[in-house]
Amino acid sequence: MVRGKTQMKRIENATSRQVTFSKRRNGLLKKAFELSVLCDAEVALIIFSPRGKLYEFSNCSMNKTIDRYQNRTKEMMCSNNQGLEDVQLEKDCMTKKLQHLEVCKRKLMGDGLDLCSMEELQQLERQIERSLTKIRSRKYQLLKEEITKLKEEEKMLLEENAALLKKVGSEWKHQEEAMDVETQLFIGPSERRGGSGFLCRYLHNQPT
């Protein structure tokens, strides 16, 4: 008989609930013992029955394990708090940097210059000049790359044009040769040699 899957909900029948508790409690205690032996782990298990009866297992001192757990929990809480403080500090620092960058951006756009000193204005001017130098350098680089690309395309087009002209010239030459052959076949070699004499004899024999 196939055993059905147990639904994970409270067992309403008190007797069945008690039997299930006893079986699963013993199984859980056995698994805790096996885990401590097989894996050399420090295991502490505490179970309270529905009536408040205590069941426990520990492969060493229960109090020692509980103290260790509490100390570890405190360390984790302190670490988490320190991590939150570090995150907050980093957030504040980034906020200040963003505000500073926003102010610098407005100044570079020509806004908020009334309160700037001569030194700050000179510094902004030098910064703008450096930016313009970088912009022009990048612009010239892109123009140079574009010119090189266009020259390569021009070279390819010239080569293709030369190949087409060569192909057309070859085809025209073949056509001329074919026309010459057809002309020779139509006239005939012998007729070309004696054609004028035949015409003179024909005209001489005609009645006047």
Fraction in beta strands: under 5%
| Count of helical stretches | 4
User: Which fold name fills CATH's third level, the topology of the domain at 14-81?
Assistant: SRF-like
So what's the overall shape?
elongated
Order of SSEs: HEEHHH
Query: What number is the mean pLDDT?
Result: 82
Q: What is the β-strand count? A: 2
Under the CATH scheme, which class of the domain at 14-81?
A: Alpha Beta
Level-2 CATH architecture of the domain at 14-81: 3-Layer(aba) Sandwich
Alpha-beta content class = mainly alpha
Query: What is the C-alpha radius of gyration, as a whole number of Å?
Result: 52 Å
Spatial arrangement of strands, main beta sheet: 1-2
Report low-confidence residues grouped into runs of 5 or more: 190-196
Helical content, roughly? over 70%
User: Could you give me the name of the CATH homologous superfamily of the domain at 14-81?
Assistant: Transcription factor, MADS-box
For the record, give the distance between the C-alpha atoms at the N and C termini, rounded to a whole number. Answer: 137 Å
Protein name: Agamous-like MADS-box protein AGL19
Organism: Cucurbita maxima
Domain K-box: 84-178
Keywords: Coiled coil, DNA-binding, Nucleus, Transcription, Transcription regulation
Topology:
Elements (H helix, E strand, L loop, with lengths): L13 H26 L4 E5 L5 E5 L3 H47 L9 H70 L1 H17 L3
Antiparallel strand pairs: 1-2
Structure write-up:
Helix content is 77%, strand content 5%. It has a two-stranded antiparallel sheet. With 208 residues, the chain is mainly alpha-helical. It starts with 13 loop residues before the first helix and ends with a helix. The model is unreliable at 190-196 (pLDDT under 50). It has helices spanning 14-39, 62-108, 118-187, 189-205; strands at 44-48, 54-58. The longest helix is centred in the C-terminal third of the chain and has 70 residues, at 118-187. The chain is elongated. Among the domains are: 14-81, Transcription factor, MADS-box (SRF-like), CATH 3.40.1810.10; 116-176. The chain contains 4 helices and 2 strands, in the order H-E-E-H-H-H. Residues 84-178 form the K-box domain. GO terms for molecular function: DNA-binding transcription factor activity; protein dimerization activity; RNA polymerase II transcription regulatory region sequence-specific DNA binding. Keywords: Coiled coil, DNA-binding, Nucleus, Transcription, Transcription regulation.
